[in-house]
Structures are given as C-alpha cells and as structure tokens.
Amino acid sequence: MRSVLPILTVVMAIVALWYGAAVMLNRQWTLDQAARAGQELTLTQVVADTMVQDRPKLPAPHQVGAELWKTTGDMVLQGRAFSKRSLIYHGWITLSATLLGFAIGTGAGILLAIGIVHNRAMDMSVMPWAIASQTIPILAIAPMIIVVLNSVGISGLIPKAIISAYLSFFPVVVGMVAGLRSPDRMQLDLLKTYSASRSQVFWKLRWPSSMPYLFTSLKVGMAASLVGAIVGELPTGAVRGLGARLLAGSYYGQTVQIWSALFAAAILAASLVGIIGLIQRVTLKRMGMAR
Amino acid sequence: MQTPIVKADHLDLVFQTNDGPVHALSDVSLEVMKGDFVSFIGPSGCGKTTFLRCVAALEHPTGGSLTVNGMTPDNARQERSYGYVFQAAGLYPWRTIARNIKLPLEIMGFSKAEQDKRVERVLDLVDLKGFGKKYPWQLSGGMQQRASIARALAFDADILLMDEPFGALDEIVRDHLNEQLLALWARTHKTCLFVTHSIPEAVYLSTKIVVMSPRPGRITDVIESPLPKERPLDIRDTPEFLEVAHRVREGLRAGHAYDD
Ligand SMILES: Nc1ncnc2c1ncn2[C@@H]1O[C@H](COP(=O)(O)OP(=O)(O)O)[C@@H](O)[C@H]1O
Ligand SMILES: [Mg+2]
C-alpha cells in the first residue's frame, strides 16, 4: 500500500504533461481555424478548443478515456459487446492470436532450451540461429509469413499466432537455458554420487531450479506475443483486431481511435503480464523459492 | 588381515588447465580400514577435495591405483558404497527436509514405505526428529548441515565422505556438531573420510590424521591417534590431545617449509 502514493504521483505528472502536450500540439490548428474565420481567441478559448477537437494531433486524456468507454463498457451495457465497433471484440481477436502464439512460442522455447542444455551440437548450432532470427526486423518478416501462408490457404488466426510465436520463443529460450543451467556444480555432483540418470537430473533438479527464470521469460514472452499479434494485423489490411483498429485509425486520421486502441493494447499487456506475475508469486511461494 | 576400505597406491592426478598442468595429487598412498575416522588436513590447494572426489569417482586419477570397497571407484558408486556431504548443505528449497532426504531414495528406486521408514530413522540419527515437515529455510545452518548428513546416511552406504561439512559454521555450533558426529560414528560404525582445515577438529574426531601439503598435493604425515574412542569435548585440554595437535602442526609446518 505504501507504493500507492508514489504511483499516483507519477500518474498525475504524466496526465499533466499529456494535457500540456495536447495544448501545445493542437494549438496551431485552433489558431489556423480562428484566423481563417477572422476571429480573435482568448487564451482560455484556445486551451478549451485544443481539448475537444475531432482529429487532434494528440487527443487529450479524457477524450481517449471517453472513446475507450464508448467502445467497451458502453457497448456492454447496450448488449453489443461483440459488435464490430467494440474494442472488446477487436481485443478478443488480438488476444486469441496472442495466446495461441504465446503457447506455441513458449512450448518451442522450452523444448529448444532443453535441447541446448542436453546436447552439445544443439548448444553450438541453435543459439546463433535464434539470435539471428531476432535481428531481422519483424516488420519485414511479418508480411512474408502472412503472404506465404495465405497462398497455401491459411489465413486469420494462425499466421498471426506464428508471428507471435516467432517473437515470444526467444526470451523463453534465453531464460530457460540460463534457468536449466542454474544448478551449480556441487548440486550436479551430488546427483552424480547417486548415479542419477539425465532425466532424473532434469526432473528433480534442473526443471524446479529453472522456475524463477521461466516466469521471468514468460512475462517478456507474453508482451512480445502481443506485439507480434498486433504487427501481424497491420500488413494484411485486416479488418479485425487491435492492429486493424490502429491501421484504420491512421488511414482516416482518427487519432482518438488510434490512441484508444493503443491503450487497449497496453491494458491487455499489463493484465496478461500481471496474471503471470500472480501465478509466479503463488508458485514460487509454494516452492519455497519466493525472493 | 583385514582388507582396506579405501586403498590408494601411488595415486597421481594432474589437471590440464589453461595455465598449464596442475599437479593436484602426487604419489599419494593411503589405506583406510573399516570403521576408521580419517581426517585430511592441510592448507587450501593441497588436494584434499581432489582426493575425496577421486574416492567418489567424481575425478579420475591420471596415475596409480585406487580401490574403494575392493572395487574401482566407479563400481563402488554404482554399488552405493558412499554418501557424500559437501561444504554447503545444498538442500532443495522446494522440498521439505523429509523430501530432501528422500531425494537419493527416489533416485535409487526405494519403495514409498521404505522411504518413509528410512527418513524417520536417519532424522533420529542426526537429532532432527520432528523436523521432517519443515522447509530448509526454517532451519539454522547447523541443522541444515545435519539434514544433509542424514541425506547421505539414508541409503546405508558404509562410507561417509565429508568435505569441510562444518567449514561455514561458527565455532560453537561446530563443537556441538563434532560431538554429535562422533556419537553418530560410534552408533553406525561407518568409515569416515573427513576434510577439514581445523587442527582441533581433526584431532578431536579422528582415529587417523592425514597431513597434506600443496604444490604438488601430497601426504607429508599420517598420524594414528592414541586418543580413546570415547571422547568428551574437554578431552581437548588433555596432554595427549595437545601432543597430537602439536604433531599435526609440525607436519603442516614441514610441508610449508620451502614455501617461505
Ligand atoms: N577441476 C579442476 N581443474 C583444474 N584444477 C583443479 C580442479 N580442481 C582442483 N584443481 C586444482 O587442484 C589443486 C588442489 O585442489 P583441491 O583438491 O580443491 O584442494 P583443497 O581441497 O585441499 O583446498 C588446486 O591447485 C586446485 O586449483
Ligand atoms: Mg577443498
């Protein structure tokens, strides 16, 4: 609870800065309009106008808040939570691709890490490729994945999930390799004195030891998955998902829509990462590994 | 004539390192008889740990011969001849004390009922009755180390290898643990190989003290202790005790002679 005050202070500061920036950025348009109409505006009039423009350069916080409400809570109240204008609907589209991609990426990442830790050849060969894969800009790869899969008749959820997986497997590989290697020599020697098999070493020592690392990489992986899903919605001219909302917003200069989609994505990411954090806390506490 | 439990014959071990070869053990010959309590003492780097690791088949000598229970160290390990106690207790934080002690038993495939029985027995041996359900962090350092000794005892190995098991603990706890260890040794008739760099600890515990010196790691003296098997803590003030301690100190000094 002690952290509430500092957090609130920071939030207030950000909101204040944001309002300030909105005034600065939107002022010119207000002044231009007034000049064209031959009007003289007082300072308060200018400031007031910068807060209510239809297509502001930077929408004010309350505009974004109102738009978010209009496209989520309000839709629910009207019983249209899954209509095409609802952010809940678009959020769900993106979320489903994120979760599927996250599952694939995490699974692949864990398997690769197990391979790397147990097999010298994989240790030498897989890591460089994994690193190389992440140096290619995702924006360059995403359209190719979508086009290629489209040409074999796969579209919609799967291509986006694959892009998500492509981004999320990497932090899992890196984290799990470190985690599975975290037992020190003494611990490994102890099991050796019992003549333990490799799979016993894995299940009794390496896997439990890697849990703190797993959760940390899952958090990074989840955030990367969401980015992947959104990026996957951009190049296709998709009409569904948060990425599509971002894109449509920028086509039509709907800055309020862009910002509310951005916030929806951020809230989604924060909730997903928060859920993993919660599971992490419970699990590590039960394992006596809470730090 | 008894056959020795551990027999090292002109043992040599050279580590090839990036800085060139390190002669960790040179011409080490030693016999340990059943029921002996043998301490290895010497400055760090003299090969105490390396010798123990050779007995445990965690290192392999580059020369000479070594048998454990009349077998090669590798076979002796397969036969569960020894339990190894490291300097750190190394208990798994995610397992209770009882389940930590079960670790070797699970790996070796003991039945559930047998596991429970053995856990009870060894907890009693190290005076930790009733602590089975606790987690390691709920125990003091000394208790954790006792739990790790219990883990090493759980599968009935005849030999107990201990590498500075009390090195990280304070003097008072250490005295207490030494007393308990002697009692345990008397009750179980195990053969103990014990690494330390405390002279009083070595003299107090041992029937035989092996003094070693570094570069290359070798044995400079082997002292058969004249002390009785029954040893209260205040035996450390008797003339016999001080005489043995003196001889150990002499041996250590001799080993150091051409260092300084
Ligand atoms: N795995 C290893 N590789 C290379 N050198 C080693 C290794 N283990 C021990 N040594 C070296 O062998 C010597 C003896 O080490 P050790 O047996 O640990 O000594 P002690 O336990 O008596 O302090 C030291 O010089 C040490 O640096
Ligand atoms: Mg040592």
TrEMBL record, chain A:
CDD domains: TM_PBP2. The chain crosses the membrane at residues 7-25, 92-117, 129-149, 161-180, 258-279. It is a multi-pass membrane protein. One of its GO terms (biological process) is transmembrane transport. One of its GO terms (cellular component) is plasma membrane. It is found in: Cell membrane. Keywords: Cell membrane, Membrane, Transmembrane, Transmembrane helix, Transport. Pfam families: BPD_transp_1. Residues 87-280 form the ABC transmembrane type-1 domain. InterPro entries: MetI-like, MetI-like_sf. Gene3D superfamilies: MetI-like (1.10.3720.10). It comes from the Bacteria. Its main location: membrane. Belongs to the binding-protein-dependent transport system permease family. This is NitT/TauT family transport system permease protein.
Automatic annotation (TrEMBL), chain B:
Pfam families: ABC_tran. This is NitT/TauT family transport system ATP-binding protein. SMART domains: AAA (SM00382). GO terms for molecular function: ATP binding; ATP hydrolysis activity. Residues 6-235 form the ABC transporter domain. It comes from Rhodovulum marinum. InterPro entries: AAA+_ATPase, ABC_transporter-like_ATP-bd, ABC_transporter-like_CS, ABC_transporter_ATP-bind, P-loop_NTPase. The lineage of its organism: Bacteria, Pseudomonadati, Pseudomonadota, Alphaproteobacteria, Rhodobacterales. Belongs to the ABC transporter superfamily. Gene3D superfamilies: P-loop containing nucleotide triphosphate hydrolases (3.40.50.300). Keywords: ATP-binding, Nucleotide-binding, Transport.
